[in-house]
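Handout, page 2. Input:
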Amino acid sequence: MFNGDFHWLDVDPQDFLAVSETVLAHYATKGNVEAELASDEDAGCGCAYPDYIDDAVVNRSNQVMTRLRATAERFLDHVRRLGELPRYLTATVGGQRVGIVHGDPESLAGWRLALEAMEPGDLLVRRQVGWKGSPTTAAELLDWFRRAEVSVLACTHTGLPYAQDVPDDGTRRRLVVNNGSAGLGNFADTTYGVITRLSSDPQPPADSLYGITLETLRCDAVPVRFDLDQWQARFLAQWPPASPGHDSYLARITRGTQLRLHQAARGAVELARDA
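Output:
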């Protein structure tokens, strides 16, 4: 299932249409991008960037949104249907209840489940992104888990992937898993995307990057590998040099981020042996 912001850099009309039709044929929740496309008010990307995100990044995102909105206006029926998607869904996998959100349980575009916000804090990640603010504590996470009656919170939105277990009274574990980005590089010197695999099969998939077993549920981060040359050519055709999309994303497409793979496997989450 798709949990929001599946539209973003796809300003080519045929790409936009293909993404819309694919997503709407599956289970999906809307992200802030889809919510803003369906809104009558132009409030930029609706990303709700925290204060530590550079203003230039915010401005470029709003410019990307302006171009995307112009494309979306050609497909008003699809935009209406995207806007009607739910903000969250729940699913039962392996007997475990999973809450699927875009940002965090309090906000469609919330950043409380960003890697840099999570306790215990990763000092290197926080320094690299310039993080400042109030951390998201285990007590806050457990409150969300109990109120939603879920064992897993699966999210996205904030850019960097990770999985982190949360002990609950010493009798069970809960899990937060953020897939980062499915269509952009996520780790240093890599170009593959990441998706979250939740399964009742206890056997980790052969291509697992990191994962954990929670009773009868297996969760793994799985790479999304694609033809980089083809992706880069398609990207440059829509976002040439000096465009906001090019300035914000070309480096990530070709080189990934500063995040190291081992930093995404937090707590009792295990890094795959061959990852």
